Amino acid sequence: MTEPRTSSIVTAMEELISTYHELNGSNVDELAELPTPLEFMQYVRRGRPFVIRGAVSEWPAMQWTVEYLENEMKGCRVQIAMTPSGNADAAVVNHTDNQTYFVKPLERDESFTDFIRDIRAQEFSDAKEISHVKYSQAQNDNLRGEYEQLYKDVDKDIPWAKIAFGGREPDAINLWIGNSRSITALHKDNYENIYCQIIGSKNFVLLSPLETACVNEKMLPCATYALDASSYGVYRRSQTWQLSIEQETVPFAVWNPDKPNEQQTRFTHLSRPLRVDLNPGDLLYLPTLW
Question: Which of 129, 175, 190, 221 is close enough to 143 for a disulfide, judged by CB 3.0 to 4.6 Å?
Answer without folding.
Answer: 175
